[in-house]
Amino acid sequence: MKRLLLTALAASCLPLLLGAAAEPRLVPDVSQRQIDIQYSFKGAELLLFGAIVYPDGKPPKDPADIVVVLKGPERPIIMREKEKIAGIWVNADSMQFQSAPSFYAIASSRPIKKIADERTAAIYELSIDNIQLSPTAFDDAAEIARFEDGLVDLQQRNGLFVQRVGNVEITDGVLYRARLPLSSRAVVGDYTAETFLIQDGRVVAAAIRDIEVRKSGFERFIANAAENWAILYGLSATIISVAMGLLAGWIGRRV
């Protein structure tokens, strides 16, 4: 009886196992896993590439699409609106976002609207318009939309939000590659390079690679000193400032 039950259970699970095994998978990589930022850093261009592995070794008749997303560490951001009062620009309304990405760049083989429906694009944050900014206030939908539009516009002008349509090249339905820029204003931290394989409007495979952006050289020494030896760093900065002021005064009297 036990053998019959196990046989029946295996037979019922076999289609599910075959369906799971039939799903393709991604083998992604990135040209740089570590990026060092120095005083002369003017940005970088990352190559995201990889392969699509199909169970039978053959791509489907209808080619799949690839979307790659380069995302920086999330952080809270406060957006302030400027207002001119009596000829002076002052801070007016403001809104805080709890977890906005410090950097976001996306590239796709085709326009997102032709690849996935609105629900799928929103779940996986495919496109700048689908970034989940998490505002702290939910009282006024119109005000939230206004500040979200302002934040997106500011980040795009600073090169921190980038969207490139048709920038992913797929060769023979198996190999893919895309280039995404990393702004010189990018913050240090842990970044992720996500790759999505989309077939018939559905995400059938996803993979991720980690990228570390860090300071190097003298900038890294200063950052470590400020973080690990805050008191000593503050005293040293004060002494150097006073010494520079005294030196400037002495030179001024000599001249």
Report what the structure shows.
The chain is 33% helix and 39% strand. The chain folds into 2 domains: 195 residues, Sandwich (Immunoglobulin-like), CATH 2.60.40; 40 residues, no CATH class. It contains 6 helices and 12 strands. The strands form 3 sheets. Strands 2-12-11-4-7-8 form a 6-stranded mixed β-sheet. The chain has a 4-stranded antiparallel β-sheet with strand order 1-3-10-9, with no helix packed on it. α5 packs across α6. β5 and β6 form a beta hairpin. The protein has 255 residues and is an alpha+beta fold. The N terminus is likely disordered. The radius of gyration is 26 Å and the shape is globular.
What is the domain total for the residues?
2
How many strands, which pairing sense, and closed or not: the largest β-sheet?
A: 6 strands, mixed
Straight-line distance between termini: 105 Å
Please mark out the parts with pLDDT under 50 across 5 or more consecutive residues, or reply none.
Answer: 1-20
The appropriate CATH architecture of the largest domain is: Sandwich
CATH topology of the largest domain: Immunoglobulin-like
Give the overall shape, derived from the CA principal axes. globular
Report the order of strands and helices. HEEEEEEEHHHEEEEEHH
Order of adjacent strands in the largest pleated sheet: 2-12-11-4-7-8
